[in-house]
Amino acid sequence: MPRDRTCGSRLRPLAARRLRAFASAGDSLLTTGLIGRYDCQQGADPDVVYDLLGNYNAARGNGGSYKPAWTAQGLNFAGPVQLVNFPVGLSNALRTDMWCLKVVRGTGDYQNISADWHIHTDGRIVSGSIGGFTFSPSEVQLGNIIVTTTHSGSATKMYFGTREAVSYQNAGNVNPAGQTWWGYHNYGAGFQGYLYYRLCWDVELTAAQVASQARWMAQQVTPRSVAIGDTASGPYIACCGDSITSGQPGAVDNDWPKKLLGLLSNPSRIVCYGESGSTLANLATAIGASVGGIFSLNSGGTNVAIIARGTNDILVSGTPAATIVSTITTAVSNARAAGATHVIVRTIPRANWTSYRTQISGDAILVAANDAIVAGATGADVVADTWTSGPLGVGGDTTDTSYYFGDGIHLSSGGHTVTAQAVETALGTVGIT
Q: In DSSP terms, which residues pair with 84 in a beta bridge?
């Protein structure tokens, strides 16, 4: 099981070099429109989280209870019921919200960071209500990160570190007005981790301004031994899939990227790009932008792209097998151009195609596509093969609920375990354990 790095741990030399690159000197605090600045350090009153601008001091806890602990690094939310109560005037004026925080994988279904954003226990960010299936976006990593949201009034954007997230499924507006509790939700889903710093503006920052302010924020927490986004000693692994990768609908928060995290002995940063309804055609053009931002944080290290789409290409479009293989080949090339040192292609699991087309035509495409993938036609370094044998492959039964959800398309927890094990085996062939 990957171990959790403590906030005060000493940086490894390579990680330290990456941190200096991220938190480079020369960026200054943008004061235009700045309405809230919280360094999350204990002040005169331990029950107050002070706004250094003096505008919107916040309460640690609520009604004398639910208080996160003060530490030298920042506020420690041990969960599940701990919060900071920010004034409603702040949220009503908010147009750009930047947090520096640490995500600690917990045991609950969700961790809440505000009324509209929740963190899965494997690190993905979810928008919408508790229990919803809108993974928007899914690029947040376990560990110390900087997350920014900007709100124009009609659309919301999210940034991780210095780069805008690209795997949006829901680009609609997430209105921050009226939100006060940070770290807790009425459903009882508590954030577990640390809040190190928060900056708030009443104007929508541009992408360039977000990048500059993220670098500035990293400079503020560096003296606290907080390394941003680059403390994993193992490879960065981007899982580029569809709803089967994200775990919808039968294995939410129990998907194969999360299971893979538990199988690897070397602490790795696994990023889940599981977008419901997505196709290989989408991925071939978007994979560079999707994985490039994450891989840039690990320049010179081992970066793995796992291509795990294809079901929707067959199910919805009836895409010919030859086109599927050629599209995967393009995605493999683009992933390498974006910094992937290794590219793995997962075979497409057997599915019940009859909701869109005849079972015979869907199976014919699947057989031809997977046979070509297993034969190495895509140019990937290695194949995560669930096709040649096993319950998701050529002899699989889509009505077996040990491995499939009731629709015969999505996987149950057992199916995700089979997939994670196949990916683990594939990673082992390129020396990643």
A: 60, 182
